[in-house]
Amino acid sequence: MMKYVMKRVALLLPTFIVITVITYAIIRLAPGDFTTMKAGLHGELTRGSLGKQFLDAERRLYGLDKPLIVGYVDWLWKFVRLDLGTSREDGRPVATRIAEALPVTLLINIITILITYLVSIPLGIITSMKPGSLFDRIVGLGLFILYSLPHFWVALLLLMFFSSSEYLNLFPLDGIMSDWAENASFFTMVVNVVWHLVLPVVTLTYGSFAFLSRYARANMLEVINQQYIITARSKGLSFNRVVFLHAFRNSLVPLVTLAASLLPALLGGSVIVEKIFSIPGLGRLAFDAIFSRDIPVIMAITSLSALLTLAGIFIADLLYGLVDPRIRLEAKL
Fold this sequence. Notes:
Blueprint: H1 2-29, H2 34-41, H3 50-61, H4 68-80, H5 94-129, H6 134-147, H7 151-162, H8 186-224, H9 227-234, H10 239-259, H11 262-268, H12 271-276, H13 282-292, H14 295-323
Helix pairs in contact: 1-14, 5-8, 5-11, 6-8, 7-8, 8-10, 10-14, 11-14, 13-14
């Protein structure tokens, strides 16, 4: 067991380096940089004979005059020392900006993941008990229709019908909390936050129901048709007992693989949803950083997402042995 863990941990470092090298190279090689973006907002700074000197001085200030490999090594050395750098957009530490956006993204994604799993897995199990029935077909059709709807389109429709004064006007247009709620009681503040989160959470969850529920259904059908389930039924065990005590546990192995994506999903945020609803989370922060070529912020968010993805895969690997005792980690060596 320990040998397997050490081997897996040793593979994380080169994988992380490859991910960050590719990300840094794409940012640096993309047309334009932070200095040209900044100069574009102040066109008078680049006019005349001093324009080139100004841009060169700005590139030296932000380290953009260094070769790509040197710039990456400088960034990696700071990252190892837990120095995420300074945001070029507002001059504040990147860690501070991430700390401000992180709680918002965590709150939205924890709620989204809980609702998705609590609805999808039981729905997948129920439909697997009577495959091909009218209920199974209606549920499948409805879920796939939801799955086919683009997030940005649904988000705009929800805003138009539920947040516009021309229609229902039930929910706020943007933000995570009203200004007046900051000084209100705790209960009032919680209600206000929930009121703001209804439409973003609906937008994030509806498309996941189809994929996860049909995935759980397919896994359950595969397990139910195996010989040991038929044998258990022939010994007189009730169908519900066989399904929930035997089949469900064995069907969890593929679902554990999906759970590996939970860690990065918690912090990754949704760029489209957070931008449309003006939610100050990590997704919106990453979106703004990309358009402003804010390299420290982009690298910090990408690196954290990469680390969480690798950690999620590693944890899922360890959970295989707990979910299914027939799987032995030593056999993978």
